[in-house]
Amino acid sequence: xxxxxxxxxxxxFHQNLLNRKEFECAxxxxxxxxxxxxxxxxLDNGTSFAHYRLSIIDNTNNSDQPFVSKCGRYILxxxxxxxxxxxxANKYFxxxxxxxxxxxxxxxxxxxxxxxxLSEIEGMFSFVFFDKVTNIFLAARDRFGIKPLYYFNDKNNxxxxxxxxxxxxxxxxxxxxxxxxxxxxxxxxxxxxxxxENVLECIPGFYITxxxxxxxxxxxxxxxxxxxxxxELIDRLKYVFNLNTIADNPHTAFQSGGMDSSLxxxxxxxxxxxxxxxxxxxxxxxxxxxxxxxxxEIKTQIVQKEEFLNLLTEYLKIKKEPISxxxxxxxxxxxxxxxxxxxYFLTGEGSDEIFFGYDRIFKWANTFGKEISNxxxxxxxxxxxxxxxxxxxxxxxxxxxxxxxxxxESHLDFIEDFFLDFHLPGLLNRAxxxxxxxxxxxxxxxxxxxxxxxxxxxxFEIKINNNKAKYPLxxxxxxxxxxxxxxxPKIGFSTLIPGMDNKGTYNYMLKFFNKLNIF
Length: 519
Hints:
CATH class of the largest domain: Alpha Beta
Number of helices: 20
Number of strands: 17
Helix content: 25-40%
Largest sheet: 6 strands, antiparallel
Strand order of the largest sheet: 2-3-1-9-8-10
Number of domains: 3
Strand content: 15-25%
């Protein structure tokens, strides 16, 4: 919903890292994230907060930020949405009239410990909460990493932001060479790092305070031991999908020809659908058929190669990072052309990771190498997963992967955790950056603890059955009037430069970024 930048002095005395004008200049680098309102607060000791708002829940100025408590003591900058804010407000403050999710979050942070309520939030968030009297701050990020949070920390200051570049600009950071090697193979840096030296990523489910970084309580996945029920899953999907439509603006959705977007369209009935594709590689015909059957309006976009390269240049200059997935450009294009009244959309990220949609790798992990060592298995897996001809196996990335084995009883468990903890946050970052570059918000209803926890560590046969990946979704859609999609080849928002395959397109775009000399 927004973008923010905060520079907090660890001393009550002024720290001369940069002046107010320099801070505001850095904050403008995220102005694309919040076209509706912006404001800045400067304190005498050099602490500053800037916020750019995209207003979706509570469109009035009551939720403008930086949000200051009624007593004037506390400051909050918040990026995201709390879909169940009315439930939380009624539970914790039944006698108080609360106007939106920002005010709800402020009151919760003032009156309750983070570990009491953060796990109850259905939604997406990153925020910085500051106490002017004690000079103590709390920053936190949602458990899936739907909304980004980056930081720089030294003995005098901490800087926190929704994107890494404003921080890099302030501290004059050089590119992180290791990250640039990693993106060639894995489309993202190792979790905890960015493309800039000393600009770090707050890990999903973690918090940062003046003197500590840790995981907030119950941000880990929970393993349900009760019997699986398709009816129970359907109830959970309906509940969560409905929550994701909470807003003061009409809800829309991205539609491809696949199961995920089709299930979202079927269960939520958006006011409008959007679809996009390259001229010779798209699912626009299938998407139109789905919209027609569901009696929904659909808007389509076709992108030619020349326009694609122009969009690529425009987007890279906003993002100031390499492209992580080629179809970022199509998402950016679609968001640029959306109706101005349509500020957010639902999209299907998370489904493949939860329901084993990457069936080639999940099947391999389930049947191969049960007796081989973890290290040998990891070597073989990374060669399969890598997007380059030779997988980069640097020390910090291998250490990260090795740590995942600690909570796994099998190699299939490792693959499940890898896709949820490494692969999915990378895709969520793509959705966030591509949509917010055009001032729109991507909502990902599958990425809910209500759904993920219920499906986590379920037997392989529940998720892949009769050679069908994402079998529960097959079962649900098979009973609907759009069941024809189950036998339709999947393309999605595919982005292939003519004459190139996936790896060729990806490598071309990495080289294109380097030519622009953005770093």
